[in-house]
Amino acid sequence: MILVPGRSALVAQADVTGARPGCSFCPDGAEAPSARVALFESRHPMVQAMGGRARHHVLVYGDEHGQRLADVPLTDVVALLDTAGKQTTTLFDDPGVLAVYAFESVGDHFGPTVAHPHGQIIGLDFVPRRLLLLADACLLCATGSDDLIVQTTPGTYLRVAPWARLPFEMVLYPRRHLGRLADATATELLELAEQIQTGLALCRDSTGRNHPYLLNIMQAPRRNDGHQHHLRVEIVPLHKPDGNLKRPGAMEIGLGVYLNPVEPRNAAALLRERLAR
Ligand SMILES: [Zn+2]
Ligand SMILES: [Zn+2]
Q1: How far is the CA of 72 from the centre of ligand 1 (A)?
Q2: Which ligand lies nearest the alpha carbon of 32?
Q3: How many angstroms is it from 184 CA to the middle of ligand 2?
Q4: Helix (H) and strand (E) counts in the chain
């Protein structure tokens, strides 16, 4: 738990497509970035700067308010991964940072305080449990050809997550056992970016509507001794096959145990079928 009393007064901005009332990051806005992907210090940091070093940045991307990662040119997604990788290295230069979390949360469900397309990257002074989940044996390296695979490229996999908490939760990762984005080659970054766009397009296609999703970039924490952290990107769409949103219930909030109504291999078959259309 992180206490953020400073964020209590924040007003969520509607995560609408098209409209951009006074958006400072749009091309005619006061803070319009000069590049397709740009890093800004968060105005409402979830974690405070230490020793003059900010630990929470916003990654603004694209130049159209209504677009999201599935819509922008592939090169923007590559640039986003590249920028996140470099910022991760910068954050780890701060000895107090033990883990880095980069993510994009899309949809009103998340109460966005910035409506323009953006991701976020945060340096944490602790290692969250989910960054240690695949610790003992690398579950991802053990993957061969299996019925959870949605799409492969020469250097990457896109699969329904074996641990899927929500029906269409996917994980994509390089075949090589890498810890962080900065360890990936340019080709691997490109293929990861392709898989991100495929996964997000599949989420959208599954009901023909824009649904809230969370995209997590899970990189090796600082002390990785004995842990086999394999870089992965998680795509967590919040909808169920009927198009309704999955809301956390008693088991989820009470125990942290997710009830998933869809067998991961059935979800994968459904996604492969959509991809083939
Ligand atoms: Zn905008
Ligand atoms: Zn591995």
Answers
A1: 14
A2: 1
A3: 13
A4: 4, 9
Distance CA 14, CA 27 (A): 19
Can you give the three-state secondary structure of 166-212, one letter per residue?
Answer: CCCCEEEEECCCCCCHHHCCHHHHHHHHHHHHHHHHHHHHCCCCCCC
> CA distances (Å), 67 to each of 196, 226, 273, in order?
15, 41, 26
pLDDT interval class at 207 (50, 70, 90): low
| pLDDT tens-digit series, residues 161-202 | 999 999 999 999 999 999 999 999 999 999 999 999 999 999
Q: Considering the entire predicted model, what is its pTM? A: 0.92
pLDDT tens digits, one per residue of 115-167: 889 999 999 999 998 888 765 578 888 876 689 999 999 999 999 999 999 99
Q: Which pair of structure tokens corresponds to residue 91?
A: 């954050």
Residue with tokens 């944490």: 124
Architecture field, domain 5-276? 2-Layer Sandwich (3.30)
